[in-house]
Write a structure and sequence with these properties.
5 strands, about 35% strand, elongated, alpha+beta, five-stranded antiparallel β-sheet
């Protein structure tokens, strides 16, 4: 059974290679602490620089699920309906390194419609980078449009 969607984008108005508006998401240590509290993931690699470096990381890194959540916002902002996302998956390729320098890091996300599927759905491929390097690979969402 097809679920109704509140998406603002009509399937008939979208073509393959339609670009979604790109976004950038700043990440600082305070955001990581808030995410740790909300998710229950208090692994010290996400907040303790000394520990992160002792285990071979360049610095504190953002939670993978935090990075994944920020990236899908490009899709949910575009559709206007988070419930329009039918599937979403990524491959974690590199961590988002978050220095304690007053600026932190930036996650840059772009997307485009890669395929028109059945049942008013499209596949959106996302490009997710930080510091000029891809941090999520195979980042894809299937989205049901109006």
């Amino acid at each position: 059974m097809t679920q109704p969607t509140q998406a603002r984008i009509a399937y008939s108005d979208v073509e393959v290679d339609t670009e979604l508006p790109a976004r950038t998401f700043p990440v600082d240590r305070a955001a990581l602490v808030r995410y740790a509290g909300a998710s229950g993931d208090f692994n010290p690699i996400h907040w303790n620089e000394r520990f992160a470096k002792e285990v071979g990381l360049p610095d504190v890194i953002a939670h993978g699920m935090f990075t994944m959540a920020e990236a899908i916002r490009v899709v949910t902002d575009w559709t206007g309906d988070p419930g329009a996302v039918v599937e979403y998956g990524v491959r974690f390729t590199r961590p988002v390194v978050v220095p304690d320098d007053g600026q932190g890091a930036v996650i840059e996300v772009g997307g485009k419609v890669a395929a028109k599927l059945d049942d008013n759905t499209v596949r959106v491929d996302l490009t997710v980078t930080s510091a000029g390097r891809k941090v999520l690979g195979m980042s894809r969402a299937v989205v049901r449009l109006a």
